[in-house]
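Predict structure. Input: Transposase, 127 residues.
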Amino acid sequence: MSLTRGNRGRCHSARATARQDSRRRGPGRQTSPTPRRPDALLADRGYDHDKYRRLLRQRGNRPVTARRGEPRGTGLGIFRYVVERTIARLHGFRRLRIRWERRDNIHEAIIGLAVCLITHRHVQRLC
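Output follows.
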């Protein structure tokens, strides 16, 4: 699943993606450019180790890891939980928790309806 989100984790669009190589058409041709690597990688305390930080720096990424032993509430969750919150909102719809539909177009239609309902509920709260 591919989500396009705005600020505060509100989903703008969603679509089902079968696999990573779905962008390829024909041998060796891609329809879209390769996405660039992120500048920073956010991780939780489980990955707080010099080995992982060194590997990330070698690849050109800046590790932003919650340190072990530091008190909770360092502010890292403000950025990390946006995507998880969006997926949790989509999982509020029983039909999307486990994919039962075999056809992609039906699954994408259900995702689209869920995004519309989530947006509608948000607009109702604002009014």
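Residues 104-126 form the longest helix (23 residues).
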